[in-house]
Amino acid sequence: MVAIANAFPGDIAAVIGTRADAPAILKAQALGLQIRISDHPETVLDGISLLCLAGYMRLLRPEALVERTVLNIHPALLPKFGGPGMYGMHVHQAVIDAGETESGCTVHRVTEYYDEGEIVLQRRVPVLPTDTAASLAARVLEAEHLAYPEAIRKIRKG
Fold first, then answer.
1. Is 74 a known active-site residue?
2. Of the listed 40, 74, 90, 92, which one is catalytic?
3. 3-class secondary-structure state, position 56
């Protein structure tokens, strides 16, 4: 969220979350961004044409996908290592366990299914022989901070 806010100052209508104490909400407050808290974020999307998910772990209701572009970022190179249960350290450990030599992140369009939407952009990072899930996660996070703003620019250009 901070990488997006820094890349697009003044362009963020709101940061929406389900918990007022969530780290992203606290960071958004520190940046002076408008906050919306709801158990059902789909109910507070009026006027939002581009919705960027980050760390949102639920499927959106289908009505949230109508009349707006919805993006998400996944900490692996989809279509591998996506779907239910593939989040956080689980993804990075699965990449290491599979013996992959590269990982990265994927910005994709959100559909009614986990991690199955059209890929907008991917950034790759090497998987090192000494990697742990945590060290790989740190490298992927750096790529995510570059990839998400780049993908938003790409979407905006059409």
1. yes
2. 74
3. coil
